[in-house]
Amino acid sequence: MTEPSLRRSAEETYADELEALKRGDDRQRPANWSMSPQAVVDYVMGGTAKDGTPISAKYVGNRRLIETAVATLATDRALLLLGMPGTAKSWVSEHLTAAVSGTSNRVIQCTAGTDENQIRYGWNYAVLLAKGPSHDALVRTPLMRAMEEGTLVRLEELTRMGSDVQDTLITVLSEKMLPIPELDDATFAKPGFNVIATANNRDKGVNELSSALKRRFNVVVLPPPATIEEETAIVTKRLGDIGTSLDLPEIAPADQEIARIVMLFRELRGGQTLDGKLKLKTVSGTLSTAEAISVGINSWAEAAHFGSGAMDAQAMAANLVGAIVKDPVSDTMALQEYLENVVRKRKGWQDLYGAIRDVM
Fold first, then answer.
1. Residue 276 region, left (φ>0) first, then alpha (ψ -120 to 50), else beta?
2. Which listed CATH number (3.40.50.300, 2.40.30.110, 3.40.190.10, 3.40.30.10) goes with 10-221?
3. Among 96, 83, 65, CA closest to 288
4. How many CA atoms lie within 13 A of 151 on its CB side?
5. What are the pLDDT digits (tens) for 143-190?
6. How far apart are CA 187 and CA 177, in angstroms?
7. Which residues neighbour 332 within 8 Å (Cβ) at sequence distance 6 or greater?
8. φ/ψ (deg, to 5) at 235
9. For the segment 220-240, what is each residue's pLDDT rounded down to a tens digit?
10. Where are the domains of the chain?
11. What is the pTM assigned to this prediction?
């Protein structure tokens, strides 16, 4: 019997939805795609399969953006999902690869320490010393395997690795081949191969893409949620999904508290109250939707295990401060100003004012 995992992949979690869409999908499919481009969009945006199976929305936003992304993957151009942190770039990337290729596990996490061997291929040095350079001695990366099998590969946070390593991708993206000079050979991509990369330009440590590499990507910008209602719906849904997967104890409905987290984040992120009447100091962090989800899930766990069984101001306070205060000086001043000028005076928020003051 297989051991349960902390987090299941998209293709495992939503296997029933994927199968339902495939059964009713009689439209043309690109080579090596599990379903048609239209079905991929239906899977990501949600709806109902032909047999009546409900398809949950994986992305809440403009359908045209997802249609453009899927259409790009059906061509020979790579896809770059761009946006500020927390705009669901990785989430969308995972679900697109799960729907198109049937697996989302071919992923390379780009970091400052990523080198060319982690992008192109490596060597099994025991075999290399015993037999010399050979195909048996190659250690295939997710990129090479995707080329060999005609699937998608994900490159997460592309701009985090150095520019010289980024440019390793130019030949792959333009020629659809990966040279192996040590063997005087090359791997040629099969139909269905493509690259989905994600990137943001807000975090520290960002390396700009070269113009040569930019030209080989079609860029789709994923904006932050347009309205507070949309962002609240996203946070609420993801909290339910994550809480269920973590098997957290049930708590009282927390819609009101989730709405307060989202409102607080949007005001500090935007530098003004939602009614536009008061300007606010901004903080150094991004206060993204993803961070609101993190605050919510941590508050849920605290309320369930140490609190009253309801997500209240006491459960949220320390988690809110931890998410907001990244710079101990400037962020603390901004939060204190927000507490005194907004939270203290807002009807029904006095409990949150006192709880945050207690942990600062």
1. left
2. 3.40.50.300
3. 83
4. 22
5. 999 999 999 999 999 999 988 899 899 999 999 999 999 999 999 999
6. 6
7. 325, 360
8. -60, -45
9. 999 888 889 989 998 998 898
10. 10-221, 228-359
11. 0.87
**What distance in Å separates the CA atoms of residue 117 and residue 123, rounded to the nearest whole number?**
9
Three-state secondary structure string covering the chain: CCCCCCCCCHHHHCHHHHHHHHHCCCCCCCCCCCCCHHHHHHHHHCEECCCCCEECCCCCCCHHHHHHHHHHHCCCCEEEEECCCCCCHHHHHHHHHHHHHCCCCCEEECCCCCCHHHHCEEECHHHHHHHCCCHHHEEECHHHHHHHHCCEEEEECHHHCCHHHHCCHHHHHHHCEEEEHHHCEEEECCCCCEEEEEECCCCCCCCCCCHHHHCCEEEEECCCCCCHHHHHHHHHHHHHHHHHHCCCCCCCCCHHHHHHHHHHHHHHHHCECCCCCCECCCCCCCCCHHHHHHHHHHHHHHHHHHCCCCCCHHHHHHHHHHHHCCCCCHHHHHHHHHHHHHHCCCCCCHHHHHHHHHHC
CB 56 within 8 Å of CB 196 = no
The distance in angstroms from the start CA to the end CA of the chain is: 48
Structure tokens at 141: 């990366």
